[in-house]
């Protein structure tokens, strides 16, 4: 409430001018971001371009995930940080973050590297789940993430599908 008192106070009051200026800038910023959001755009297309194992740390497994991010829009998308969460069989499996920054050009693509960590208990839990899924040979996955771009320009994405397990049958002599 003190902020509003300062705004409504006399113009010669201390800090009132700065508070009014901050309020006006906030309204202009929100209005411009609102106008930009009205035009919308197509969602980014994100797919896994590669997975490379990284040194094991304790009981955790670590991977470097390469994401191919495609921008089908007329304006570039700037980002300053990436966050990922991977679910297998509807259960949390791995997560990762990176402070990598860059730009996905308009009608272009870029590859982003994110280190992904699989906690030991998640790996054990999924090992038992894989035994049940081995019959169908299909494991559903959901990859959720975001490209952070500041206060209002964070871009979220989802990629989902199924992983095919190799046949586990034994050859007869």
TrEMBL record:
- Top-level taxon: Bacteria
Q: Where in this chain does the record put each Water stress and hypersensitive response domain?
A: 46-166
SUPFAM superfamilies recorded: LEA14-like
Against Gene3D superfamilies, the record matches this protein to: 2.60.40.1820
Entry-linked InterPro entries: LEA_2, WHy-dom
Q: Which SMART domains match?
A: WHy
Its BP terms in the Gene Ontology are: response to desiccation
Protein name as catalogued = Late embryogenesis abundant protein
What organism is listed for this UniProt entry?
Paraburkholderia aspalathi
């Amino acid at each position: 409430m003190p902020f509003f008192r300062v705004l409504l106070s006399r113009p010669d009051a201390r800090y009132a001018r700065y508070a009014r200026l901050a309020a006006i800038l906030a309204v202009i910023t929100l209005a411009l971001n609102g106008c930009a959001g009205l035009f919308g755009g197509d969602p980014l297309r994100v797919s896994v371009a590669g997975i490379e194992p990284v040194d094991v740390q304790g009981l955790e497994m670590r991977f470097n995930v390469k994401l191919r991010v495609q921008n089908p829009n007329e304006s570039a998308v700037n980002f300053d940080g990436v966050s990922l969460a991977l679910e297998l069989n509807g259960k949390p499996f791995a997560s990762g973050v990176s402070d990598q920054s860059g730009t996905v050009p308009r009608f272009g693509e870029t590859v982003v590297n994110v280190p992904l960590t699989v906690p030991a208990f998640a790996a054990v839990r999924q090992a038992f789940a894989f035994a049940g899924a081995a019959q169908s040979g299909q494991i559903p996955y959901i990859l959720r993430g975001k490209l952070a771009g500041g206060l209002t320009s964070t871009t979220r994405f989802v990629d989902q599908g199924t992983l095919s397990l190799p046949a586990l049958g034994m050859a007869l002599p």
